[in-house]
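Backbone-to-sequence.
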């Protein structure tokens, strides 16, 4: 392998729930020269909502393209302050996005929302990952697959989710015939945005990634790609046409989506012809940016979480119930990508601070964190379920909701805040235990994302609840960094990048020196609380599960009283 030249750079684009970020990265060591953020303009914090339907969440495709130009130009302008930087040394571009966030497009690969007819139609926008309007359709897909194509469910954890591709397209077919009929095809924005950068004007020419196709759309080589037309027609006759518009071949992130078009090169102030990597979901490239390898569990903690692991394709990994798929090469070439996650984490904390507003509008995360940090594990007598936006893993049920147990007339906002953090940590442990129960050992945990960097309280609670040391990625922008690494790999060693991810990751990633070690006393308390959490988890989350919950409240009080007694 040719050594990377320190004067070569890549651009990583990270499309999140509320904003898009661009980073300019030094290929030699992963150093971030610059970054820029654009907050989506449409909707509430970038999400288009409908008051009468709390399950609906859409985004404007125009925000993606406007944001692409603004953040890239801003990041490049900032990078120019480094004397070694010049735009002709940019060798690759990578893109990650939320998912599953499918978009209806026409034959020319344009968003239907560009048409005057559908400009104000929410169904013609991008269907954001957190849109759960298709929950009934997801259940129908699960039932149909169980009856006719059980092999489909084996590869996606046993249950299809309302967050995913076919539930959303089926929902549109049911509720908006005009939009559904006008769409030539549907495409994940992880595939559409790289295609736009490459100047693709033919929908059939879009290179679709295995990440989105495999984890969210039932794609697998074992049955020839996407689900067959006969199966989809049983759900809705119109889905046959969608299937016919989809390719039988997909690509991994080590391959090119194309090269930067002359039009976008001019807009961005970059040379035309720069290779653009096939797109992937933020969590999967975030795992790359966090330094993923065999045995490492990467937790990308943001508004929600995604948990990612990889395992060599040659290893016989069992189908794991409740996972969001085990997909060959969805994260790294030559490895199975294993995805799990929680539908809300940061969103839960923000809900409590911004919607409930304990103590009034002046309530802040910082103050609540300080007060919560002064509490000992079990001191509050509280226990929560982290299902405020449904359960992504291991139950895969978006019709589940949050729960707080153990409140008394003495319960404080800080106690509730801490209990919510503890609940998300217990959800994380549930996922880890499911992986290990099916033969995927977790030897190392790396957390990344804003909460990981900003909340020592949360990270210590995670270490204590999971009973594992917690490392934190050194990059605050692991998803964008992972995209930049993909850009370095598609550029190749001859251009100053890398030929393999195995070469790029050790050079371009790392963790902070500070890490979080389990506290034995806290671990002992959380063992008791976690057992109660699992009682609630199974009783409310598993159909037909019969649990005697009559002792849960009393156990929480016993733990609380014991903690108080020890302090005397």
């Amino acid at each position: 392998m040719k050594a990377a030249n320190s004067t070569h750079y890549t651009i990583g684009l990270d499309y999140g729930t509320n904003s898009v970020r661009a980073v300019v990265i030094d290929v030699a060591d992963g150093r971030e020269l610059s970054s820029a953020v654009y907050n989506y303009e449409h909707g509430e914090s970038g999400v288009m909502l409908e008051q009468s339907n709390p399950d609906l969440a859409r985004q404007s495709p125009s925000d993606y393209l406007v944001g692409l130009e603004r953040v890239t130009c801003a990041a490049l302008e900032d990078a120019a302050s480094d004397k070694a930087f010049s735009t002709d040394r940019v060798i690759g571009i990578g893109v990650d996005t939320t998912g599953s966030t499918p978009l209806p497009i026409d034959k020319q690969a344009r968003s239907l929302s560009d048409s005057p007819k559908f400009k104000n139609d929410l169904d013609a926008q991008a269907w954001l990952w957190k849109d759960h309007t298709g929950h009934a359709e997801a259940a129908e897909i699960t039932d149909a697959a169980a009856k006719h194509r059980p092999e489909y469910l084996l590869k996606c954890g046993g249950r299809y989710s309302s967050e995913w591709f076919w539930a959303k397209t089926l929902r549109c077919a049911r509720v908006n015939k005009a939009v559904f009929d006008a769409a030539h095809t549907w495409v994940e924005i992880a595939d559409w945005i790289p295609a736009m950068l490459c100047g693709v004007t033919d929908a059939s020419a879009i290179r679709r990634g295995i990440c989105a196709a495999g984890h969210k759309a039932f794609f697998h080589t074992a049955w020839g790609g996407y689900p067959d037309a006969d199966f989809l027609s049983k759900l809705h006759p119109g889905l046959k046409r969608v299937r016919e518009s989809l390719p039988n071949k997909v690509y991994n992130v080590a391959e090119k989506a194309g090269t930067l078009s002359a039009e976008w090169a001019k807009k961005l102030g970059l040379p035309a012809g720069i290779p653009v990597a096939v797109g992937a979901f933020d969590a999967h490239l975030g795992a790359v940016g966090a330094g993923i390898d065999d045995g490492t569990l990467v937790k990308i903690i943001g508004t929600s979480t995604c948990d990612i692991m990889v395992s060599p394709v040659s290893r016989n990994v069992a189908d794991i119930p409740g996972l969001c798929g085990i997909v060959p090469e969805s994260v790294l070439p030559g490895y199975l990508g294993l995805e799990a996650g929680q539908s809300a984490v940061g969103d839960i904390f923000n809900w409590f601070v911004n919607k409930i507003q304990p103590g009034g509008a002046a309530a802040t995360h910082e103050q609540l964190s300080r007060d919560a940090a002064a509490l000992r594990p079990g001191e509050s007598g509280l226990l929560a379920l982290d299902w405020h936006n449904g359960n992504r893993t291991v139950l895969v049920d978006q019709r589940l909701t949050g729960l707080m147990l153990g409140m008394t007339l003495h319960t404080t906002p800080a106690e509730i805040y801490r209990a919510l953090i503890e609940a998300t940590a217990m959800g994380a442990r549930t996922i880890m235990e499911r992986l290990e129960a099916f033969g995927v050992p977790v030897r190392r945990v790396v957390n990344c994302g804003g909460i990981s960097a900003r909340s020592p309280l949360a990270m210590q609670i995670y270490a204590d609840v999971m009973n594992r040391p917690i490392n934190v990625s050194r990059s605050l922008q692991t998803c964008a960094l992972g995209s930049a690494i993909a850009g370095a790999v598609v550029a190749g060693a001859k251009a100053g990048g890398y030929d393999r991810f195995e070469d790029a990751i050790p050079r371009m990633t790392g963790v902070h020196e500070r890490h979080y070690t389990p506290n034995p006393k806290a671990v002992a308390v959380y063992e008791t609380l976690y057992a109660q959490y699992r009682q609630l988890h199974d009783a409310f989350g598993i159909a037909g599960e019969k649990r005697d919950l009559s002792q849960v409240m009393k156990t929480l009080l016993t733990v609380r009283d014991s903690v108080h007694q020890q302090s005397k």
